[in-house]
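Technical note accompanying the year-one report. For the benefit of new consortium partners, we illustrate the data format agreed upon in the data management plan: each record pairs a sequence with a structure-token string. No post-processing was applied to the example shown here.
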Amino acid sequence: MRSGLADWAITKDATSGAELGLRVRYWTGDTIVGTLQDDGSVHFTADSGIQNGLNSEQGSNANRSGISFDFSINTGVNTVTDGGKGFTLEVNNRYGEHFVFDLKHLSSGTDISVNRNTQAPVLGDEDGSNPHLSQNSLNFGYGSLDGHADNKGGTIDITLPETNTDHTAVYASQHIQIDVVDPIVSALQHGLLAA
């Protein structure tokens, strides 16, 4: 089951009740509302460039991309456990690079994501001590994800599947696309500037 709740794109596994959520926002700034597509994916449009303060960000930072995404995995919606499940973030960026991060459940409320190729830890869990919830934010300027703070135009694909532990069967999946565009071109397209 797929839905777009405000700015979150959420998929719920009808069997286990697990919820998979993705959203796009400007780093430390405004969230971006996506549009649900016929294929079930959700498309977002965001301005290219670094964190520059133009989209309610908290100041400027040349080492951070203007856009980031948040993920949320909630296995406790129907009081089920995440045993026997695997969760993965897959990111295809504008530079033709492919990143795969596996969520590792270490203990109650402690999760980390690791790069599947290197097994290097990438980020921790920022949801507190909830044993059924894993959440965090990723900026495309982070070296572990993309490392390209210039945030050039193009399309970014992000997939968050729920699988078995060896990733051979998919139970549910959320997919979003971010169309990164030049802010002047975007303003012209939306009639906010005269050509």
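Partners are asked to follow this layout when depositing records. Helices lie at 183-189.
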